[in-house]
Amino acid sequence: MAEDGLQVPAASVARLPLYLRCLEELCANGVATVSSSRLAELAGVNAAKLRKDLSHLGSYGTRGVGYEVINLTHEIQRELGLDEQSPVIVVGLGNLGQALAKHGGFGDRGFPIVALFDVQPDIVGMQIGDLVVAHFDDLAGIVAHYKARTAIISTPADAAQQVTDDVIAAGITSVLNFAPTVVQVGEGVALRQVDLALELQILSYYQPRSDSERDTKLRLSV
Amino acid sequence: MAEDGLQVPAASVARLPLYLRCLEELCANGVATVSSSRLAELAGVNAAKLRKDLSHLGSYGTRGVGYEVINLTHEIQRELGLDEQSPVIVVGLGNLGQALAKHGGFGDRGFPIVALFDVQPDIVGMQIGDLVVAHFDDLAGIVAHYKARTAIISTPADAAQQVTDDVIAAGITSVLNFAPTVVQVGEGVALRQVDLALELQILSYYQPRSDSERDTKLRLSV
DNA sequence: TAGATTGTTAATCGATTAACAATC
DNA sequence: TAGATTGTTAATCGATTAACAATC
Fold first, then answer.
1. Residue B29 in contact with partner chain A when CB distance is under 8 A
2. DSSP state letter for B83
3. 0.90 exceeded by pTM
4. How far apart are the first and last CA of chain B?
5. Tens digits of pLDDT across chain B (222 residues)
6. Looking at the domain assignment, is residue B216 inside a domain?
């Protein structure tokens, strides 16, 4: 139960947004009630794991029936702290940063992008979507004005640590780093790192290879 | 030892590209030898974990000395199957797809993007970087021509499953899905899914909150 | 009631980490 | 040799899953 102050295990926390996405799709399709086995199928996970994950939030299902879609949606949103909108800033407006800034998926899910920052003279002042890129020197005032707590870092690797330090100094407490380098943050700051090329390198290991001396790791479907 | 055909644990596989990135940075800085504790520090992981991960590849360190940077780089590349370039296709050239297509980081790390596909009349024919967007109807021939085995899916959610099925039918065996929906693949196909907004929702849980009835989960640094 | 499905238990599995013998 | 660091052991920790009593 959330009221107990018990932590939800990290592996469960990482799956809750996935369930949320599936629930929202069910809701959009007019489905009112869903069983753990059906929701697990949609999310691509084991049904027992899903029930275990949900049990950390409390008992919101009905035995013999399932979960009420709208109710469970709200409980997961509450647990994740998605009750209110969280303004987000983006630092580094190269190709990826521009795409992230124009990407509607953040605002749709409670994370409106409110400000963009760069230092390049040819990028500062550029209009991207509804926003104009500000100079990184103006960070502190703008972050304070919007009460932004979350930053997306999409700078080159060699700038990422300094930018991270600076946004934290300006009041940011959640950092999503897309720069291909490890950044360090102190306690009290939440951090996730996404490296797009790294994902392809992980996939490479599982790619069936016949040319190598190693046995094929996955068989093609029968 | 890789020659034994023993599988490297999934958690270790997911970290090997991270070590690789750190090693390449060390190499660029002219560092010839590195200890597990230094490399672990750069990668942001525990040193014992790093040594355990590397032990699955074989014994490539020297006690009392450390690891030779170039040698270890090659061993990790070999283990991941990064010996040769892997041509990649991108399907769905919206904001994100365009950014991924222009993103130099893939080609730099052995994954040159060789073809782009969409179905929208205003996108097919568009030049993005060095490439022109092809129609998805021409998928099979182009995949065969480039011998592409890896696909990046950046379509809307409602198209992702059909696109995934089609690229697999065309010969793709590794799929990196950015569409915000779960896609299912059969055996013999490797799959990873990245949902950008989902990362922000996970961060939200760990964001210190004083307004909630729940205790703050992380303290601000002392 | 009978059928269905949750919430939880307990067993298993896999990942992490400190410690240290091996050894350069 | 003495100091340093790997590779591995073993203990611990956390995650997964099948099974089923509880119960709608």
1. no
2. S
3. yes
4. 45
5. 334 446 899 999 999 999 999 999 999 999 999 999 999 999 999 999 999 999 999 999 999 999 999 999 999 999 999 999 999 999 999 999 999 999 989 999 999 999 999 999 999 999 999 999 999 999 999 999 999 999 999 999 999 999 999 999 999 999 999 999 999 999 999 999 999 999 999 999 999 875 443 444 443 322
6. no
Chain B residue with minimal CA distance to A151?
A: B200
Nearest CA in chain A to B210: A81
B40 and B143 within one domain: no
Q: What is the CATH number of the domain that holds B40?
A: 1.10.10.10
Does A117 lie in the same domain as A156?
A: yes
Chain B residues in contact with A188 (beta carbon < 8 A) = 208, 218-221
CA pair distance A69, A65, nearest whole angstrom: 12
Query: Is B21 within 8 Å of A160 (Cβ atoms)?
Result: no
Nearest residue for D23, CA–C1': A63
Domain housing B46: 2-78
Q: Which residues contact B176 (CB under 8 A, 6 or more apart)?
A: A199, A200, A203, B150, B151, B152, B153, B191, B192, B193, B194
